[in-house]
Amino acid sequence: MVYSFNKYIPVIHQTSFVHPLAAVTGNVIIGKNCYIGPGAAIRGDWGQIILEDGVNVQENCTVHMFPGKSITLKESAHVGHGAIIHGANLGRNCLIGMNSVIMDDAEIGDESIVGALSFVKAETIIPKRSLVVGNPAKVIKEVSDEMIAWKTKGTELYQQLPRDCHDTLRMVEPLREVPENMKIQEGVYDTLRDHFLRRQESHDKKA
């Protein structure tokens, strides 16, 4: 659902996908190849919200702010299921873990990773390439090249998802029995642990 508010109408690029069960309100600008999942609320009633190209805001996320504030989720920012972004700015190609809360005037640096269930306090400045966890959240180490490569691959799946949704997502009546020829989807992306294990196995074989 897309709503005007106080004469502000959201701007959404045609390559992006906003699920019908999401709500986008007011002064919101959504760039190319963005994915907005069901249950997400992006509320630009009191300030402007910009999603640059390739951003994903997954199921049940909230993006909002105090009156008079404006925020930007920079290119390829990745906001996991259930996260809350309240008046914070997200850097390019960062990852916000599931059910994390990022508070007002916080700044998440480019290519940083915020762990699931973390709480980033208001006005916190997270340097680029930081791994952040906890409540309150703290930087525990620098994000490695391999970790950001893993994150980037996952975000690329979400950048493909808008096109897939436009092409194939339809409201249907459910089947009443499981078809005999039903296939299970192939794995196209590893967990971080499995990613490192595969890399190690490949290294060992070459050695």
From TrEMBL:
Q: Which Pfam families does the entry mention?
A: Hexapep
Which CDD domains does the record associate with it?
Answer: LbH_paaY_like
Question: What SUPFAM superfamilies would the database entry show?
Answer: Trimeric LpxA-like enzymes
Gene3D superfamilies noted in UniProt: Hexapeptide repeat proteins
Name this polypeptide is given: Phenylacetic acid degradation protein
Source organism = Gelidibacter algens
